[in-house]
Recover the amino acids of this structure.
């Protein structure tokens, strides 16, 4: 059974940095795509970044480019999202997700990710 468990969220000041993690288990993730999405209060779930477990290929939302970095520690089966230069508008619940069908194509669409974690809250104060 696939399990994705996020951790590392918290309160950070604007301009600060934070790294959140997603511990993945219950499946062989090699070759599959892992994504980060976020959902602010009253808004829909929005794509942040995605990475292929094996190739290391990545794709980022425009809002994340240059500030956020997705990475995978295959030895620990953990996906990370390093966030820098944080802004109040980055405040959201951040979700980790797994896409087992995309192959080489990194999807930005939340409905293409079959497995989800419960999320971790990131709050950026101004």
């Amino acid at each position: 059974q696939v399990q994705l468990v996020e951790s590392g969220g918290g309160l950070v000041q604007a301009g600060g940095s934070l790294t959140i993690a997603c511990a993945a288990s219950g499946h062989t993730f090699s070759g599959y795509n892992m994504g980060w999405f976020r959902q602010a209060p009253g808004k829909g779930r929005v794509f942040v970044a995605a990475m292929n477990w094996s190739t290391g290929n990545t794709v980022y939302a425009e809002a994340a480019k240059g500030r956020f970095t997705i990475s995978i520690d295959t030895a620990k089966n953990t996906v990370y999202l390093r966030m820098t230069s944080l802004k109040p508008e980055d405040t959201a619940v951040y979700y980790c997700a797994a896409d087992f069908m995309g192959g080489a194509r990194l999807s930005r669409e939340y409905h293409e990710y079959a497995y989800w974690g419960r999320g971790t809250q990131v709050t950026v104060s101004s």
Summary: The mean pLDDT is 96.
